[in-house]
Write a structure and sequence with these properties.
The longest helix has 30 residues. The N and C termini lie far apart (about 95 Å). By secondary structure, the chain is an alpha/beta fold. The protein is about 45% helix and about 15% strand.
């Protein structure tokens, strides 16, 4: 009789008998408690891991250097990633988009681009955090010689040495809400072997760019504002400053 009963036992009932539990429900309760303990343990481990690794989806890190942070003008070597270097794309209505950092050699690439497509170009549209001031000045002269206009679209960004390129346009259009920023020209401490030589170089670059602005019909007060702005900051020009200083010949709204 006993053996027949055991043959009719379910696996759950047999487990209950072996564990000394009175009924099958006890086994289910035991299994549930075990799963609950395991789940809690896994969650604890996961939270500890997240705490050690930091948030993985906490939005942008505002302390990190953005890819379009203002670059230091007037310095030939900044360790700027090559993929951030300015690119040129010709789009409709003769608009050549100049986007990215002005790295050393950008002026030469710009000149080569104009040699290929200059006949189709009417306006240079800028979106740049700046960079090499020498290249920016050379680009400005190329633009003026060709008789092109320059533009920063509504909501666009043109900072550091980029406004020098903007100054090269025969017509200089700045869109509503665009950020046009200037600051001091300087070289990092680790690239200056002689303080006096560094000061001489800074003064020479300063004089060259003042002369450039005057040649382009820009009020040289723009350079004074730039030189009064610490190198770690940017002075964003107001609409009144842009027009008063003649950096913008026209303010435009979004199309």
């Amino acid at each position: 009789m006993t053996s027949a009963v055991r043959r009719r036992e379910t696996p759950l009932a047999r487990l209950a008998r072996r564990l000394g539990l009175r009924r099958e429900g006890g086994v289910l309760l035991l299994l549930f408690r075990g799963l609950l303990v395991s789940a809690v343990a896994v969650l604890v481990i996961d939270f500890r891991t997240l705490g050690e690794a930091g948030p993985t989806n906490a939005g942008p890190d505002l302390t990190a250097t953005p890819s379009y942070a203002p670059r230091i003008p007037g310095v030939p070597s900044l360790g700027i990633p090559e993929e951030d270097a300015m690119t040129f794309d010709l789009v409709a209505e003769g608009r050549l988009l100049a986007t990215g950092t002005i790295t050393p050699g950008t002026a030469e690439r710009f000149q080569a681009e104009l040699a290929k497509r200059g006949g189709y170009v009417a306006t240079i549209v800028l979106e740049s955090p700046g960079g090499s001031v020498r290249d920016a000045a050379a680009m400005a002269r190329l633009i003026r010689q060709a008789g092109f206009s320059t533009e920063v679209v509504p909501g666009g960004y043109c900072a550091s040495s980029c406004p020098l390129v903007l100054a090269g346009g025969v017509e200089r259009r700045v869109g509503e809400g665009a950020s046009i920023g200037v600051h001091q020209v300087f070289a990092p401490d680790d690239q200056i072997d002689d303080v006096a030589a560094g000061m001489d170089e800074a003064q020479r670059i300063s004089a060259e760019n003042q002369r450039l602005l005057v040649e382009m019909g820009i009020d040289p007060e723009l350079w004074i504002i730039a030189m009064e702005t610490p190198k770690e900051q940017l002075h964003f020009l107001t609409t009144e400053e842009l027009t008063h200083l003649r950096l913008a010949t026209a303010m435009v709204t979004a199309r």
